[in-house]
């Protein structure tokens, strides 16, 4: 197991369990599976180890753990993005530049690289680039990179097994019968003009 | 020229979509040996990626070079093997100056039935009698009663969902039990009720109980990819593959028909075609030929079959081949129903919409400024399995990141954002909508002259679209929703096409290009004499009785209903007639 993957997997487990007592049983299973898989797989193909750690942290901030339910980090989104970067030089260049922008800006403002800054410093920086109305001449490269990274993080998360189960636990086919829960019908009818 | 002299096929069927598939199956069951010719390749059941998810590709749809995120061009994951548009350079068509037309073609066994919306609606009595009942367009030489037994046969064989309602605009059939309505469909049903409009269970060529060896639907929502379980209709797996098992069907793929070869008496004796694999021109000899290549392609074949006996092409002494081309009037409007936010998610995929709205003013056209009606197809409101782009609308609105963004995405999921109303309206055939052999001599890769299309919407269609906008707005507002910005556009949704710019900006919706809804019919129309039509009431070419038409070509007028079901029923009737004529020795 490489250093990155070991730390990554153990880190996920620690972060997840630290997030609260109410952890879904499938979350635990997911993380155990990931821990096992980590022994044989992941090394970034496109990014350096430092860049990849920064990307992982960025995806973790974009789709964080919510009430014990895993987020983008646990779903391995950074690995999927890295794989896409490895086949598209233009895309890779935008990430390399964007991640460097995060590091440089954090170094200027906080005296440290993005990944080693405190969570408060990290969110302060993201707050400045995650809203279009906060765009300035200075932070435009950061805003543009964030729009791309958010889009790809959300894409990667909600197309992962973890993300699909998160958004609609009962939603995957096949089903032998088509059932519309009365609860769902009541929910809308009770709020409608037809109640 | 290569010709197989050893075999004279009883029947050569050109094209394997709804019409060709039906004729193949019906004739094979009646003991007739057929050769089925298709311009594209064979399709296999493993080619239908019905249950594939984004996770089945490492890039999840971003493309092998992740181009989705640089050029915007992703990779379709699911239907590359079943939707086979011809290479536009190899097989072009042209559009006359001042016209807008888009021709969707699929070159593969099963044609467009592999991926169509599975909406199978019977025509109404008045759809066959527009001239005498509505004062516009043309009457068919047959009536609803002539086709009703064949709608019955088609429904018994392929299976169509629905609920009997006794509506003139939506004749009842032999229905599979429909799936229940989703919450937003309940709302639409009630809103329509309040407005005096009857909405009912959708009529989809999907089976909810096992039928003829096919298993019931598993409600995965992916009908458009073709069904690897065969639980919906496509001519490939419901008709052609079973027909091949009879041993009476020979399939000739990658065979692009060039022309019908006629003898001194004017009868067709062979079909000349290009073997696309070698580029070589070949012929198959036949006693009877059935044109099922789509209304446009069948017209092209007739027009390209010129000889001393048929100087204008086969069946074209009256100059009617290619004329009175029609499509469907399309208009979309979406609305937002905010109180649906937070509805508990469930497995809502089903089989497309489970509710639709048949035309509700069939007997009140005197109140309207357009003569023919429309029906409404419904979309949205469900909980789709996420794909790339999921949640984008929510986070582009909310901006930000983290838990608030995650909540915004969850709240927007299936919450009623973009409940879509898609109008599908009847068009009155007109003199300005037709196809012809390109007069400038354009040819395809094999030197076959191509079609040039002409198109013009009339006020009838534009008034109809305005009524769609008014009625959809009323329904959305009756639900307590709001119409989304943009105000709706013609031709959006399935078969989206850019608006036809030749329409004055007069407040009525701008309709899309002709052909954009992919319901193009006509061009080989049915009638009583060679002066008013190409084929007779049995879809047999007046002047050349060993040529039959079995696709959308014979439609003398076009109801609001999606044409597939009527193509199937008409082809079924034609095939039975043809088999009987063969038995009697008449053809």
Task: Summarize the topology.
The complex is a heterodimer of chains A (195) and B (587).
Chain A lengths: L2 H16 L6 H14 L10 H14 L14 H9 L3 H22 L8 H11 L10 H19 L2 H7 L14 H10 L4
Chain B lengths: L1 E13 L3 H12 L4 E4 L56 E2 L34 H5 L9 H15 L24 H12 L5 E2 L33 H10 L4 E4 L2 E8 L5 E8 L4 E12 L3 H9 L25 E8 L18 E3 L16 E6 L12 H7 L3 H11 L6 E7 L8 E4 L13 E4 L4 H20 L3 E2 L5 E2 L56 E3 L14 H21 L3
Parallel strand pairs in B: 1-2, 1-8, 2-5, 3-14, 8-17
Antiparallel strand pairs in B: 4-10, 6-7, 7-8, 9-12, 9-15, 9-16, 10-11, 11-12, 13-14
Helix pairs in contact in B: 1-5, 1-10, 3-10, 7-8
Structural overview:
- The complex is a heterodimer of chains A (195) and B (587).
- Chain A contains 9 helices and no strands.
- By secondary structure, chain A is mainly α.
- Chain A has a domain at 44-169.
- The radius of gyration of chain A is 19 Å and the shape is globular.
- The model of chain A is unreliable at 1-29 (pLDDT under 50).
- Chain B has 587 residues and is of the alpha/beta class.
- Chain B has one domain: FAD/NAD(P)-binding domain (3-Layer(bba) Sandwich).
- In chain B, 21% of the residues lie in helices and 16% in strands.
- In chain B, strands 1, 2, 5, 6, 7, 8 and 17 form a 7-stranded mixed sheet that branches. In chain B, strands 4, 9, 10, 11, 12, 15 and 16 form a 7-stranded antiparallel sheet that branches.
- In chain B, a hairpin with a 5-residue loop joins strand 6 and strand 7 (268-275).
- In chain B, helix 1 (18-29) packs parallel to helix 5 (235-244) and helix 3 (144-158) crosses helix 10 (564-584).
- Chain B is globular, with a radius of gyration of 24 Å.
- The two termini of chain B are 27 Å apart.
- The model of chain B is unreliable at 491-496 (pLDDT under 50).
